[in-house]
Amino acid sequence: MYGKGMLKGLGVTLVRFWNTYWDDAVWMWRRVTTGDKRYHSKEGIAHRSSKNARGIFTVQYPEEKLPVPEEFRYLPFLVYDEGADGKREILCTSCGICAKVCPPQCIWIVRTNDPLTGRPVPQPAEFYIDGDICMSCGYCAEYCPFDAIKMDHDYELAAYTRNIYDLEKLLKSSTYYASIRPANAAREEEARKAKEAAKSARSATHAAAA
Amino acid sequence: MENKESLNLPGYEIPDELKNVVSVTALDRLYNWGRRSSVWPLMFGLACCAIEMIAAQASRYDLARFGMEVMRPTPRQADLMIVAGTVTKKMLPAIVRLWNQMPEPKYVLAMGACASSGGPFKEGYNVVAGIDKFLPVDIYVPGCPPTPQALLNGLILLQKKIDQESIRKVRWYRKGPDSVEIPVPILGPDLIDPRRIPDIKAKAAELASTPAPATQS
Fold first, then answer.
1. Across the interface, do B116 and A158 touch by the CB < 8 Å criterion?
2. How far is A163 from chain B (nearest CA, A)?
């Protein structure tokens, strides 16, 4: 019989269509009993991403967003620590390793010297990243010896003009970094503390020997 | 619907007693609503960004929610060109020709690093360093490749751009040529942009008129 396959396919669509509304009823019941919502909620997205999803599984993007994993990386940003009096302590020392390892070479750093002593200042005078060239490889974050440049989770970056980011736009606080990558931030903090403890222990033994 | 006071500039006085009662720009809003709710993209992909574009089109992200699901295989029916991927010099003449064949109003969205600027191939021998050297790009979406949600974000930005347009100002209802024809680049030993041919000729004439420096022979 001709057209059997087509009817079968339409049947699949019909079942999915029905499942969408059936699931709506199920979630309405859940909303009454447990308070879980189907849309605009964490459990709803988790359900629609799971293998138990039936019927519709669209993520209603502008209203709700798919949660990104911790290691998700988009474009890099610079980390700063909040100082005591609200001053921003930029971790970047403008060593230029990130600019050297960057495969598409989208990082541009301007260094400065102290006008009095003529020595280089360990802070970038200007720092540019061309967001439209960056290929999100994460080498800059991988190679940075000061943990000063990290990969961001923010992907909503579309613009009417070329995305060239300067220092002002790249700087984000370390609390923001800890909020998007909690496990990584904790690990780095631990390593830093261990290093400091080893350093102080070494200096203490030196002092005792002297 | 949110109130867009910037759109409510009719260009002539509304009497005080009629303010907030009549809206002269209702037609604009209707027109823009219709246009932005049926932006049909041209169906072509150039590289890996195309896979993300397809993912954005499929049911997980579902472009149909924005009226953009009708990917047109012909430029005559398309409103939007999503340049999704690396634009090689060999492909560029075809892309510019497709752009010229699209009817006004038309928009370009440069998706991903390669289309926006050449990306990792920006100094490559065979890749155009950004489609914006040839086409008037409306939206740049960074990322390598942009996730489907990043692309959707760019498309929503395009909808916002369309919302800001007014029938009184749009180019394709004015007198004169409705669209700017972009000369199709010539595929040569290296890519030649026909817009620069007069400059190249002038330079060549200038070099020919000046006596060549004495070379050893």
1. no
2. 7
CB pairs A-B closer than 8 Å:
97
Contacts of A162 in chain B (CB under 8 A): 116-117, 132, 140
Distance CA B207, CA B217 (A): 20
Of the candidates A61, A75, A162, which has its C-beta nearest B140's C-beta?
Answer: A162
In the structure, what pLDDT confidence band is assigned to residue B1 with cuts at 50, 70 and 90?
A: very low
Q: How far is CA B152 from CA A86, A98, B189, in A?
A: 37, 30, 38
> Is A158 in CB contact (< 8 Å) with chain B?
yes
- The pTM score is 0.84
Q: Do A160 and B113 touch (CB under 8 A)?
A: no
Asked, for residue A71, whether it belongs to a domain, the answer is no
Position A130 in a domain = yes
The answer to whether position B50 is within a domain reads yes
| Structural domain that includes position B137 | 40-157
Residue B211 has pLDDT above 70, yes or no: yes
SS (HEC) of B118-172:
CHHHCCCCCECCCHHHCCCCCEEECCCCCCHHHHHHHHHHHHHHHHCCCCCCCHH
Contacts of B144 in chain A (CB under 8 A): 134-137
Q: How far apart are CA A188 and CA B80, in angstroms?
A: 45
A36 and A108 together in one domain: no
- Among B138, B142, B149, the residue with its CB nearest the CB of A131 is B142
> Domain for residue B201, yes or no?
no
Question: What ipTM does this complex have?
Answer: 0.88
Interchain CB contact of B85 with A (< 8 Å): no
Please report the pLDDT score of residue A138 as a whole number.
Answer: 92
Comparing B24 with A139, the larger pLDDT belongs to: A139
Residue B131 CA to residue B202 CA, distance in Å, equals 26
Structural domain count, chain A: 2
Q: What is the pLDDT of residue A209?
A: 80
In a domain, B1, yes or no: no
B65 occurs within a structural domain = yes
d(CA B8, CA B13): 12
Which CATH number does the domain housing residue A142 bear? 3.30.70.3270
Q: Which of B116, B157, B161 is opposite residue A132, by nearest beta carbon?
A: B116
A104 interface with B at CB cutoff 8 Å? yes
State the CATH number of the domain containing residue B150.
Answer: 3.40.50.12280
Domain total of chain B? 1
pLDDT at B2: 46
Q: Are residues A106 and A155 in the same domain?
A: yes
DSSP 8-state code for residue A198: H
The residue segments making up the domain with residue A52 are: 1-66
